[in-house]
Amino acid sequence: THTGSVIASFTGDCAAFSRDSGSDLFLEGCTAEQVSSFQLASSGDVPDLYYSQSEESSNVMHLPLQTLGREAKRARVESIIKSMNGSEANPQEIIPEGTNKNTTLYPYQMEMFKMHQHQNQYQRCKQVQIKNEDTMVKNLYASPKLPQNTCMDIPHGVQQANHSQQNAERIKYMTDILKCELSKALSTSVDTIFKAQTKQERKKPPLYHQYYDSSPSYTQMTPVPLPAFQTEALSLVVRKDKSVPISQYCTGDQELTPTKKSSKSLQKRDFEREQRKITDKSWYVLKERSKEGLTTNHLKKAKLMFFYTRYPSSHVLKMCFSDVQFTRCITSQLIKWFSNFREFFYIQMEKFARHAVLQRVTDAEALTVGRESELFRVLNLHYNKTSDFQVPDRFLEVAEITLREFYVAICLGKDQDPAWKKAIYRVISKLDSDVPTHFILT
DNA sequence: CATGTACCTG
DNA sequence: CAGGTACATG
């Protein structure tokens, strides 16, 4: 027998954590060797190796496969994004007049560029009368910079022939403007979300721990006063380029930056990152408010919500995703998402807790989860890949509590009980915060 | 029976 | 992350 089969016999009996504990019988037929080999398998240093992996699949054997898996995953995600955005997912290679060759423009810039192109074109033609004036469009775009109805540059003969072409171009121009305006308006609303969050972070004092009543081996955590406001992490405060108000760098992000890098390449890296964010944002914006089902942006939002609530109620889900038709399928998909989020969260917690045990960490108090910690980095990467969201302090507290719960349980040997996680889940499920109001759609 | 949760798998 | 399974709950 290998550990896989041992674990398999346990599954289903840890299901709902509201169920009473005391299922010693499930250890029947499980030898001490099996239990310990299970523990060894669980405590591997290799990321993503699930603890129920069978013995045959050693950690060493898994490394290359993992790498391949990540690459495949990455490729998959990229292709999905591409398919959602059409050609706009990739920066477009164009050569605008008066600029360097092979300048790479991203969708947002592309729109702007097209707009300028059209504006120039139409200002050159401002003397020619165009028949069948579209009064509605005229009213909508009664901006002084918009094309006038005359164009002296074009000879009379050509004028008639070019008429339909001009109209087509006008329509295209309007479409571009519309796109641009829509994009701007929506990005403003997205910015509002992040700004609102920032304000709330600023207003709210850190939450203190009033919930600890049944901690087995460590005392109530002392609330540590946090700095009033993490100005460094908030680009809203320090940012110079106002065109990218969404970005809020986390301190954890810095960890990813190699220490030895020329300032030039750093600048380039920052520039590229900003570009990526612009792309992300326009894509985020354009796909929002879709009524056809859950989009990638809904997933992104759900992940951010996880920072506040690990066990969202259906009601909360409905409030936050009211822009989609709530069929049974959609509901269960959302629930499934959060289930997957929790799974990842708890797996990480267990992994890091076991690691701490192996490192002979003396007591639970020594285990902390700061923004600079590896655990936070992993979590942030999963739920907030672009690091453009300021993770609430409360989430770090919850992570720390979870980590300590796992650590203590493992130290006390509770993990030999197949239902040992149930108690932890019960504790963590009580630590949900309210989702900030800006997540709720009206 | 419908819903929610955990676990496993691909 | 989604599909499937087992189980609990109302």
TrEMBL record:
It is found in: Nucleus. Transmembrane segments: none annotated. Residues 291-442 form the Prospero domain. The keyword Transport does not apply. Coiled coil: none annotated. Keywords: DNA-binding, Homeobox, Nucleus, Transcription, Transcription regulation. Its main location: nucleus. It holds the Pfam family HPD. GO terms for molecular function: DNA-binding transcription factor activity, RNA polymerase II-specific; RNA polymerase II cis-regulatory region sequence-specific DNA binding. GO terms for biological process: cell development; nervous system development. InterPro entries: Homeo_prospero_dom, Homeo_prospero_dom_sf, Homeodomain-like_sf, Prospero_homeodomain. PROSITE patterns: HOMEO_PROSPERO. One of its GO terms (cellular component) is nucleus. This is Prospero domain-containing protein.
